[in-house]
Predict the structure.
Amino acid sequence: MRIAVIGATGNVGTAVLDNLSSRPEVDSILGVARRLPDTDAAPYAAAQWHQADIQYSEVVPELAQALQGCDAVIHLAWLIQPNSERSLLRRVNVDGTRHVLQAAALAGIRQAVVASSVGVYSPAEDAAPRDENWPTEGIPGSHYSVDKVAQERVMDEFLQEHPDFSLARLRPGLVFQRGAGSEIQRYFAGELAPVQLLQLLRPPVVPLPAGVRTQAVHAEDLAAAYAQAALLGAHGAFNICADDLLDGKAIARVTSGASPVALQLPLPAKAVRALIKAAHRARVLPMDEGWLDLARHVPVMDVTKARDQLDWTPRYTAAEALEELIQGMAAGEGRPSVPLRPRELNAQDRSELPAKSHHLDDQVDPVLLRHYMADHLAGATVGVNRIKRMAADYVDTPVFPEISEAAEAIRRERAFLLELMRRQGFPRAMGSAAVAWAGERVGRLKPNGRLPLDRSPSTLVLEAEMMLSAVTGKLHGWSTMKEHADALGVDPEVFQSLIDDAEVQRGQLETVHRYARRRAFRTERETFEKTR
């Protein structure tokens, strides 16, 4: 079989690629994503790739062409953040599912497996197991649940129009794995949450809202269920979760590191909900209060149908999956894709650096080189902040993938430069970086002819131009360091790779600039319209 995986770079998608690549029944895999991963790294190297943004209806014929020759589609693409962009989430998650199914039908495919969720189910206040016939009206107060219910209605409508289509909808609990630690931290706790401390100390007392009760599944087990459903041509709904229940006591026991004296400290749910809501509105916490509503009111699922019809059995308990996640969050674990990016440099990046005790030879002036690299680090700090903000500001535009991919590459390169300087014994020069950081933020106040809270049509043009200049400067910086690669203790090919990456970023930013400049000053055209 040839199987297409839509949304193949996230938590579940990466695990599905891992699973499919080991199946003798699978001849080839097509990975589809809005932002492409490192296609030379495992498991992404096992697939052919097509880049597509499924939120736009224009994608249907293009995606159908890419899906030609596939026997089944596994649709996993789902946007969790940003919570504040409800129309964007709806387009990607609900409209995107419609577009994927339409493209599959247009390509002549008659089998799909779609990622649904326990979040589609109506509330249940007890722990009695419910099968797939439990009502699917969702959990009030959770936008995630609302969109999951709407997604299932899209599937119902599609099946009415295509009665010969086999459509399996998997309804998993929470999905955990070590490699998703950094991603899940960003989506729910935020980048500044001090989760690194969990490597040093596990709390003996864990405060949790009263009534929390959830089920989970390891990403590897869920991936096996998706693969089985695709290979067997399954149809209908399937609950997917581990056998054990994560209530307050179980979560406290795992979070504490299985301490025999672990205690749950129950907190009033209403008070915690109000606190989460306030923190989210203040942009301190990425997670909104709807996730607490889910954790308190979703039913306990019965997985008998998946065991019987998919021949599926989980290898991990929910507690084991949660422990892996905690370890992954503490260590900042990730994989080589934009959604799963690790918190810091990964092992491959670090292996390209010199030994920690490396010192420059006598033919290089360390003071001059230190200042030169410090100035580039200051520029990189500004660039990271600016393009990170650009990605957030233009997340609802067709050029978001280019901005986001460039942002991840620039973030990773700054971390590389910072670590390279540290291994040379260069002190981190805070002054120039701080001045550059402050200047970048002051520059954000420039209104460009519009109120400060509005997006000016010309701002994207100017920001793309500034980033193009910055990337060009960085490219020459890497070229200079390549000339002194031996003195720095780095293989010259490492700097050549950074130069090549800068050229890719320049091409991505040229695409952004071309999109913006064609629209910024035209009265008959929307600057941020959905088409290119």
Q: What stands out?
A: Residues 448-453 have pLDDT under 50 and may be disordered. Residues 366-393 form the longest helix (28 residues).
